[in-house]
Amino acid sequence: MSLLLRYMRRRDIKPVVAIDRLCFQPPWSAESYTFEIKQSSVSHMAVLERRAPSAPVMAAGWRGRLRQQLRRARAGTVLGYGGIWRIEGEAHISTLAVHPAWRGCGYGEIVLAGLFGKALRLRADYIVLEVRVGNAAAQALYCKYGFRRVARKRQYYQNNKEDAWDMRVTLDGAARSRYARLLAGLRRRQAFDDGYSRASRPRG
Ligand SMILES: CC(C)(COP(=O)(O)OP(=O)(O)OC[C@H]1O[C@@H](n2cnc3c(N)ncnc32)[C@H](O)[C@@H]1OP(=O)(O)O)[C@@H](O)C(=O)NCCC(=O)NCCS
Questions:
Q1: Ligand 1 test: best mutation among 47, 94, 98, most atoms within 8 Å of CB?
Q2: Residue 202 falls inside a structural domain
Q3: Residues 30-65 pLDDT 10s
Q4: CB-ligand 1 contact for 104 (6 Å cutoff)
Q5: Which of 11, 53, 92, 192 has the fewest CB atoms within 10 Å, i.e. is most exposed?
Q6: Strand partners, 48
Q7: Helix (H) / strand (E) containing 137
Q8: Residue 132 located in a structural domain
């Protein structure tokens, strides 16, 4: 399977919102995602996409080839997504999710590694996030990348008054070395192209 991590575009909002509804209570609206990718100057949103396998060109002529290429481009499936807000010294993970059907395959780690790489690229001093105290899977992923629980935010989530952990990792030399080692291991297990962490934010 061919995987691509890239900046989120407007066309991704529909599948992203569909996954959001399966993952979060309350989910973000399509308008929120539109704001993040079109208006916010601090937001860097990513999607992990499965690209359709390239098929041999069958149709004759440039029109036929163009039609086929367009069909192929549309066939990409959003598997997961995430984002950071880059504000002052901070990179704040705004969201991170993988479609329930695709969990446990390393895709959440690819997205987190991309966000981590983006935070380094944007010269953040640290990365911070909030996570439900009952969300063991996400906490394990964050701990793997060196995040530590630094504070408990009481009744942070409005829907059920669940507490949140404030988790942080300082982007010092040790964190960079751990990240490089984990990224190399991840790449040995999963081939993916990263068109996000080193890319500039697309305009418009
Ligand atoms: C958290 C989430 C993104 C993980 O995505 P995923 O693709 O299933 O995770 P991966 O397969 O990439 O696993 C990477 C690491 O996450 C941790 N992890 C993932 N699933 C886990 C589970 N069920 N139990 C414990 N740890 C788990 C492990 O540390 C794992 O590393 P390992 O394989 O070396 O053990 C996914 O569970 C999700 O979308 N959850 C709902 C949304 C959410 O809670 N987002 C976080 C908001 S703060």
A1: 98
A2: no
A3: 999 999 999 999 999 999 999 876 655 555 677 766
A4: yes
A5: 53
A6: 5, 80
A7: helix 136-144
A8: yes
